[in-house]
Amino acid sequence: MEGDDRERLLATMPLHAITSTYGEAGLRDRFAFEIASWAEADRRRMQRALDLAARLHADDRRDREPYVNHLLRVAIRIISYYGVHDAEVICAALLHDAVEDHAADLAAGGGGADLAAGGGGAELTGGRADQQAALAVLAAEFGPRVAELVGVVTNPPYARDRDEDEQYREHVADGLRDNPWARVIKASDFTDNGVGLIHTTGPRLHRLAGKYAPLVPVLADLIARPDTPLDAAVKEHIMAQLDRAAERFAAVRGDAARGRSLGMPELPEVETARRLIADLALGRRITGVDDADTFVCRPHSPGELRAALTGRTLTAAHRRGKTMWCETSGLDDSDLGPILGIHLGMSGRIVVTAPDGWVAEGGDPPGRDAEPRKAEWDRFTLEFADGGRLALFDKRRLGRIVLNPDLDRLGPDAAEVTTAEFRALITTGTIAVKARLLDQSKIAGVGNLLADEALWQAKVPPATPVSRLQRKDADRLYRAVRSVLASAAAKGGAHTGDVIAARRPGASCPRCGAEMVHGTVGGRSTWWCSREQAAWSPAPADSASRQPAARRKGIF
Hints:
Layout: H1 3-12, H2 15-35, H3 40-56, E1 61-62, E2 65-66, H4 67-80, H5 87-94, H6 98-109, H7 112-116, H8 128-142, H9 144-153, H10 164-177, H11 180-196, H12 203-212, H13 215-224, H14 232-253, H15 267-280, E3 286-290, H16 304-309, E4 314-320, E5 323-328, E6 340-343, E7 349-353, E8 359-363, E9 378-384, E10 389-393, E11 400-403, H17 419-426, H18 433-438, H19 448-458, H20 471-491, E12 516-521, E13 524-529
Antiparallel strand pairs: 1-2, 3-9, 4-5, 5-6, 6-11, 7-8, 7-10, 9-10, 12-13
Helix pairs in contact: 2-4, 3-5, 4-5, 4-11, 5-9, 5-11, 6-8, 8-9, 9-11, 10-11, 10-13, 11-14, 12-14, 13-14, 15-20, 17-20, 19-20
């Protein structure tokens, strides 16, 4: 393959596909492509960091690959998928394990030129003094900010009388709390480690899953914070990766067999929240509004929602797909109030407190999150004159509250669309059928779990181009969508579907017993039956390293 053709191909390939096909050379070429347009001084600086990292880790292996592959993927992911254009962050990403793994070697080298040429002492993991000396070397060679970022993500020597994994998690939580850019590096590192589990076997696989699984909610909370310097779309992409990592950890640890699922609230869960508002929150006068969370309430400034809603009542609660909105009363008989738009995000739920203190919840099932509830996870609150309240409880901070949302960008509700409408919407174009089901501008309300369940029930391969669906296929899929929606609503959510517990490695199809297979369709983690959904199924792929799909227009 010619150089230009290979470069274009590498630019479109998932990182782990590059690794398996072209190895370290391919990752180096992809890295060079990503930084080709950067300032020359920045390129030289990043290349020095890569050379030093490669020299320090020359004899290190990460399962079946050179350790430098991991460092390259962490750096490339930050540039290409997170949209970061900051040479110091990339240098720190390339060197993020240098001090932890080779502090004595780095400190003894005394400088970048000597180290890059192969100088330095024995390759040892140093104690605290060696780590400080190594960071001083990095500061002198690459600047104090690079050294600071590496220092934040470097695990200190562990106390021998305490569990190492527990100390690791404490260090991550404490270190990243005050350094937003270090969170970006750790998110990419953690993603690569989560994906790397698929290349690990034996007892080490279970140990790593136990080590990393408790860190998922910690990282999710840190990434969702407003000072994390990433776009909202990138944050949502990382949250989806964390969910997939959590599913993988749960499968390894045996949790998936008990039917646990970490997907976002889908239409049935959102409908429970809407009903809760309709049953318990309408007609209660609003006397106070907590809208201080500027990320959840963007683009509104603090106090704007309070000024718009205080003194009014909620008069009706509606839903289309996974989006809710409430009508509000006027302040007198002559006008109507603004529309209050509510989106639960990936793990939000509505909590309504009655005047007597009785609490009811709707949305993401509370049992899916075992951590004790914290008051700061109430991201938006309405206080009522009778002493009760309505809150958006959203641990991950990916829900949204907005006034007067644009509802025209949503397609018809999946629970209400007619057979003819569904057939027309589902069969137009050449996109994969699962991707079409997930397109909220076409049909609103079907999420990842419901899509897998409906396609499995209808025996439709998820990657089938919609143009190849016959009328009987589309009608059978329509009936399956309506069936899974009704079943999920009756049983308590999308996670109760018949095939959901089989969305894990080693599982069998609940209907025919064939092996369940995993891949990526429309940028989303997908499971299907290897026998009944075989035709047009995609090759199993690494979803965690794939370029995010183009963000569809939404009302929030």
